[in-house]
Amino acid sequence: MRTLFKKATALILSIAVAAMPLAAFAASKVHAAEEIIVVIDPGHGGSNLGTDYLPIPEKTYTMAVALVMKEELEKYENVQVFLTHTDDIDMSLKERAEFATSVNADFLFSLHFNMSLSHALYGSEIWVPSTGQLYSQGFSVANEFLIQFEEMGLFNRGIKTRIGSNGKSDYYGIIRESALRNIPAVIVEHCHVDNIKDSSYIQSPEKLREFGIRDAEAVARYFGLVSKDGKTDYREYAPLAVPVPASRVYNDTTAPSFVSANLLNYDQTGKYATVELTALDEESLIQYYSYSYDNGLTWSALQPWAKGNPTMTVSINMGYGKKDSLIFKVYNLYDRSTESNVIKLN
Ligand SMILES: [Zn+2]
Question: Residues 6 or more apart from 147 whose CB is under 8 A from it?
């Protein structure tokens, strides 16, 4: 156990170190001395509804947020803002990237809202290009978006790449088509519309407005913009400096490699169990755990993992009545899961 723990710690640290040097590199920040051209892409449109789990389709949310984001960004000097479309129309991903090229865009931000088939996932995530300078720029700006969303109270599901099945290009069309034209593009998945933890964030126009304001703030910080009224000045703000990767940054396609559950205490009433969990994933990070005390028949809602830590101690309320066993699952950034050993309670 002790050896495994040490191994887990070392591996997690190596992941942390792999991510850390980013901050140590000199910022290659673009200051807005010249005009910055931003393209905002409201995801979906026309017959392409996007996520339609709720009565209001995703395309309605993305347009509402995009319009606020544009209005907010236009409060800054030296920035020109375009939307890929303002009418409710069908537009291919290639056409969106072509539009960005036509206006000589410095960056394209594709706005989206998420859902999961299980309805269990919650939080914000950003998809970025997988190669070169585009990756560095994407990762750096994605970090700004996630800082904003975490401030709103949303769970951070991370900054991710996804490679297509050919192994040679980005999976998501808007990122791939923009990369072909040498335009950095990121997909901003604000939150999950189908999970109770996130659904309150889209319940009113005021709430959606906050996303637009936060999106604009992230971009203003990244580009070091100064507001027209002179009240906000991000010229000295240093966004995360991300070194250009030597080769394509691949996504994690495997489940966490190790998880162990060690019972620390099970109280006399048979209600609470305290368990030390140790988990590791060499390629990404652990981000959720869940548990079952009916032999895997039903599982708890996903709980946030103490991100970056190999170990966490959790207290589980299993209700009254003796339970036979307790088992855990841990999930990585890509929602792949691994089950723990079974803790026998009798
Ligand atoms: Zn979408």
Answer: 218
Ligand 1 center from residue 93 Cα (angstroms): 12
pTM: 0.89
Q: 219 and 148 share a domain?
A: yes
Number of domains composing the chain? 2
Q: Give the distance (Å) from ligand 1 centre to CA of residue 320.
A: 43
Query: Which pLDDT belongs to residue 187?
Result: 98
User: Which domain CATH number covers 329?
Assistant: 2.60.40.10
Strands (E) across 133-178 are located at 156-160
As a whole number of angstroms, the distance between CA 9 and CA 12 comes to 5
Q: Report pLDDT for 321.
A: 81
CA dihedral 120→112→182→91, nearest 10 degrees, is 130
pLDDT category, 33, cuts 50, 70, 90?
Answer: low
Tell whether 152 and 282 lie within a shared domain.
no
Confidence of residue 20 (pLDDT cuts 50, 70, 90): very low
Q: 19 in a domain, yes or no? A: no
Between the CA of 203 and the centroid of ligand 1 the distance, in Å, is: 18
Distance 28 CA to ligand 1 centre (A): 31
Q: 61 CA distance to ligand 1 centroid (A)?
A: 10
Give 172 Cα–ligand 1 centroid separation in angstroms: 11
285 assigned to some structural domain: yes
Range of the domain at 89: 26-223
Please report whether residue 281 resides in a domain. yes
